[in-house]
Amino acid sequence: MPTLLDCLHFTSFRHLWAIAQAHFLLPPQRHPPKQVWIETLHAFLSDPANLERLVSQLSNAEQDALHALLALPHPALEHAFCARHGAIRPYRPWDRSSPLPDRPWRFPVSSAEHLWYLGLLFPAPPDRPGGQPRLTLAAEHRTFLADYFTKMTPARPAAPAGLAYAPSLFDTLYDLTVLVALLHQHDVALVHQRWLPLPFLHLVNQQTRQPASLPALRSELQAPRLHFLHYLAQTLGLLTTAADLPKPAPALALWLQADPAVRVQQLWRSWLQPDSWRAFRLPAATAPDPTALVQHVLRVLALAPAAEWRTIPQLRRELKRFIHPQPVWWQAPTEDENLPHILADLFLGPLAWLGMVHLQTETRLQIRLTAAARAFLDDAPLPSIPAPQPFALSLDQERITLRLPNSDAALGAASVDLARLFAIISQFGSLSFGPDDLALVLAGDTTLDAVLHLLDGAIGRPLDAGEYAVVAGWAATPAPITIHRLTVLEAADPAHLTALTTRRALRPLLGRTLNRRLVVVPDRLLPRLVGRLRRLRIPHRLTIPETRGGARAGKAKIADSGYLYLAGLVFQQLSRFTDLPMRLPAAVLDQIAANLPPETASDLHALAEELLARLQTAFDGYSGPPLDNPHPVNLADTQARLTAAIAGEHSVELTYWTAWRGELTHRRVDPYRLETRGAVTYLVAYCHLRRAERVFRLDRIIAVADSEPSATIVQPPPTGATTANDDDLIVPF
Prior knowledge:
Elements: H1 4-10, H2 13-22, H3 34-45, H4 48-56, H5 60-71, E1 76-77, H6 78-85, H7 111-118, E2 122-124, E3 134-136, H8 139-152, H9 167-185, H10 198-207, H11 224-235, E4 239-242, E5 245-248, H12 251-257, H13 260-270, H14 274-279, H15 290-303, E6 310-311, H16 312-321, H17 338-348, H18 350-353, E7 357-360, E8 366-369, H19 371-377, E9 392-395, E10 400-403, H20 418-428, E11 432-433, H21 435-442, H22 448-459, H23 465-476, E12 488-490, H24 494-501, E13 518-520, H25 526-535, E14 541-542, H26 560-573, H27 586-593, H28 598-619, H29 635-648, E15 652-658, E16 663-677, E17 680-687, E18 692-697, E19 701-706, E20 729-730
Parallel strand pairs: 12-20
Antiparallel strand pairs: 1-3, 2-3, 4-5, 6-8, 7-8, 9-10, 10-11, 12-13, 14-20, 15-16, 15-19, 16-17, 17-18
Helix pairs in contact: 1-3, 2-3, 4-8, 9-11, 9-20, 20-22, 26-28
């Protein structure tokens, strides 16, 4: 391996200057030559104290990149290293037109680039003329890093006796369940219909057993372990597509309920799929048959004695020595340089995550099969796995936290009930949740009893009295926002709605008009409306369940405090029309409302709004004082123009005689329909002046003119469609 001094001599002058700038080093003289920079950087980068400070501040991903270089006995190919650890942008200060940043060391885009500008990663001389670019560690840095990682990395506890699985396998099963559960909870649109979006990757990463450092994540491909979990979910058939969104497949339920050893066996049997391997761009994805290499490597390891370790050079020689009936791509001379990098990526990535190999990385990368993987390759029964253990629950007034069983042991995730884990994560999104999270769950279709049953099953016992009181108290806390349904009557034809609203028995039961085919029905009047439609034998279709008690259920008895609340609401809003001699304190209404059921208070609010709307209509001339209209009116022409406007669905300008004020007003309205009440014809329209539905007498409309061409009525939804909910009233005629 080249020494640090050799690496600095081979490095370009601008790269040396960039490393010095990254460490805020000043030269001893103005415009120093390259040799001065080499001496300055050599003194800085060979100091063990400086190296320890630099390495301790690196992220997990950057330390993984150094581990990968330490595992190789020779320099790494630049394209292979950058494909795994990110690109390295060149520093070109002379090219002002370049899109590259002026100082890339300030905001590195990858782990490789950060190491490059810190002076921990150097270009290596090519092994032959015209050879591919390579990257290396200085010999002094390699020695320091081997000692540092040996000292700083705690020894992982050995697996308990009788358990022949690697801990990483159970971490992968745990994290795979978390990924699918969060996809069930959230509607996630895939990027380019292939990759998981960045916000969702960060969300999954927070809940995994092995969270990665993702500071500059720009794609799923830059999060190798999360990317591999996505691949496993697809190859196992745990995901399907619903409305272009990835959602759990029916096979997930069977997989979660299976015996733990059977679940592992299904995972190891189905994870190698060539087409998916290429689509997800896993190691050696561009090779003719990448999964064949993986299978052959596992067979070579299975032929070795169980207690012996293998290095990558040994494995490469054994792979080359095997004779195959057909030529295989990894034995070609052109693959001599790429094969060690591919093997390192496989062992440090998929094979380690699946728990099929044990690794040693103190001085160099050494590999051997786990006992369970050896049994699987020999078609022998897999060793047994302990039965799932319940979660441990800790609770206070703010959070409920479920901890893994045996969380301090090396195989803490081995005893997790994945079915329970999926149920909790898919409901709450985490093993720790509070009152707001519970309110969101209860806002859906989940009941409090279902939540309590889920918690009882997760911890393996019923909640005690104190725990139950806290959860029940959270559930009883009023939500800050309440959503009410809007009941709507829809007519298949606007003429049918006009005919319906002209009936005196039905008109008081209808609310405001939304468009030419939709009218709001107050919830408290719905049973009476349905009863009258039946008595009048008007065909209709009811898409919401009727209130128990039939048509009379709408006449609920209101307590005396309810009448006081209604009177207070109306009095409080009378300031819209006139100056009030006194103000009603809001605290008085709040005190009365606190003693009313929420549904009663909601109905009283709707009733108050209806009374105020009728009062506003009276003030606007619907039933004003009977002053004679001094202006001539051509009723036939007015009605013809309004009929044309209704048919053409465009706005009109009205000159209207406001009888109670005795003055003319000008209104722009969207006409809905004409109604005849007794001997008087009225126009029901949306008034742009009042921004609400209003009713105008035709004998008080002095003139009608077409509005601007752009002022058209919003088109109502087509027949058979509605803007209402599934619980709306649909009345086709």
